[in-house]
Design a protein that fits this description.
The protein is of the alpha/beta class. It contains 14 helices and 14 strands. The chain folds into 2 domains: 126 residues, 2-Layer Sandwich (Enolase-like, domain 1), CATH 3.30.390; 225 residues, Enolase-like C-terminal domain (TIM Barrel, Alpha-Beta Barrel). Helices cover 38% and strands 20% of the residues. A 7-stranded parallel sheet has the order 5-6-7-8-9-10-11. The chain has a 4-stranded antiparallel sheet with strand order 3-2-1-14, with helices on both faces. Strands 4-13-12 form a 3-stranded antiparallel sheet, with no helix packed on it. Bound molecules: [(2S)-5-oxo-2,5-dihydrofuran-2-yl]acetic acid and magnesium ion.
Length: 387
């Protein structure tokens, strides 16, 4: 008998961060994750995550909105569908639901996790097989205080956890930001690579001046300096910048990636399955980048362990991630929500070997951190045809 989707749970889980995380558009001291669990008629299940930064401050979807969208609009389309056809289920969702990339990514992750668990294979095996067993992971220094950031970086280097750092700038004047970055780079010297993420906060003139000043300070890369809609500005900057320019918020799917390659609007793409609309959409962006000679970097939406494990499963199948990854989200949270935490060691995240995403939720912890009380469970018929 074909296995069907019978049950979809969505939970909002709030986990405090280990310190405030300050970005140009918002600061967070707790991370809000939307977790989805899809259950199947044979008793199997899969999990996915939809997480963003600061409610609606960063992107078009909030965790609460994702929960609502899945409960009200995704679930009726999914219930009763064949478990072994995640691609068909996602095609149906794309036909009936516009946008909602973060929620679609969470659902696709859960469908693929379950399919891989049923096959008793790690998800990498369903995605073509693993090329890397571990992924280098940088750390974001974003306490908002220069001395505290330097101390944090020194501790990370000493513990061999991270030796590449991303600094969040764009909130202060350019001169103040550059002074902050230069002080950190000077303290760390050749022991660390330093990059910055402006999160769209600059105009064209600040970006032109900033690229030169940051290059002089020894910074390697600038992430999304201009507004996500300003592709022409990004192209002009990419043509003249002495250091690499990376696109992040601008990449909301393979179409954006194609336009960015065509216009030579970035040297590097930050690959984020949530922004792309799913793991397969992110893989399409990677293919476009490779064809267009654009470098790749494994981005994060500061997801917790589920989203991080999903991205790792994809990134491990890509031939080259020239700029490494930032899959540190679980380490920014005070708790990992798994029975076995993800392992970070020797500047890298180790890919789990067990089936699916390779992680098991600790349901006691989930219950403890859930904001919305008992889960809202959507149950439907098991016999509906898949057509
Ligand atoms: C972003 O814009 O890259 C990723 C790392 C971090 O500190 O913030 C996120 C979002
Ligand atoms: Mg970014």
């Amino acid at each position: 008998m074909p296995v069907k989707i019978v049950h979809i749970d969505t939970w909002i889980v709030d986990i405090p961060t280990i310190r405030p995380h300050v970005l140009s558009m918002t600061s967070i001291s707790s991370q809000v994750m939307m977790l989805v669990r899809i259950r199947f008629s044979d008793g199997s299940e899969g999990i996915g995550e939809g997480t963003t930064i600061g409610g609606l401050a960063y992107g078009d979807e909030s965790p609460e909105g994702m929960k609502l969208a899945i409960d009200r609009y995704f679930a009726p389309l999914l219930l009763g569908r064949d478990a072994e056809e995640p691609a068909a289920a996602m095609a149906l969702l794309r036909t009936h639901i516009v946008g909602n990339h973060f929620a679609k990514n969470a659902v696709e992750t859960a469908l693929l996790d379950a399919a891989a668990r049923r096959a008793e294979l790690p998800l990498t095996a369903l995605l073509g097989g693993r090329i890397h067993d571990s992924l280098p992971v940088l750390w974001t220094l974003a306490s908002g205080e220069t001395e505290r950031d330097i101390d944090e970086a020194e501790a990370m280097i000493a513990a061999r956890r991270h030796n590449v750092f991303k600094l969040k700038i764009g909130k202060r004047d350019l001169a103040d930001d550059v002074a902050h970055v230069a002080a950190i780079k000077k303290a760390l010297g050749d022991r660390a690579s330093v990059r910055v993420d402006v999160n769209q906060a600059w105009d064209a003139m600040s970006a032109k001046r900033g690229a030169k000043m940051l290059a002089d300070a020894g910074v390697d890369l600038i992430e999304q300096p201009l507004n996500r809609d300003d592709r022409r500005g990004m192209a002009a900057l990419t043509a003249t910048s002495p250091i690499a320019i990376m696109a992040d918020e601008a990449l909301r799917g393979p179409h954006d990636a194609l336009e960015y390659v065509r216009d030579k609007a970035a040297h590097v793409f930050s690959l984020k399955p949530a922004q792309a609309g799913g793991l397969f959409a992110a893989r399409d962006i990677a293919a476009i980048a490779r064809a267009g000679k654009v470098g790749l970097y494994g981005g994060t939406m500061l997801e917790g362990g589920v989203g991080t494990a999903a991205s790792a499963q994809l990134f491990a199948t890509l031939p080259a991630m020239e700029w490494g990854t930032e899959l540190f989200g679980p380490l920014l949270q005070t708790e990992q929500i798994f029975t076995e935490p993800l392992t970070y060691d020797n500047f890298a995240l180790a890919l789990p070997d067990s089936p699916g995403l390779g992680v098991e939720l600790d349901l006691d912890k989930i219950r403890h951190f859930r904001r919305d009380g008992p889960s809202r469970t959507v149950t439907g018929p098991t016999s509906r045809e898949t057509s």
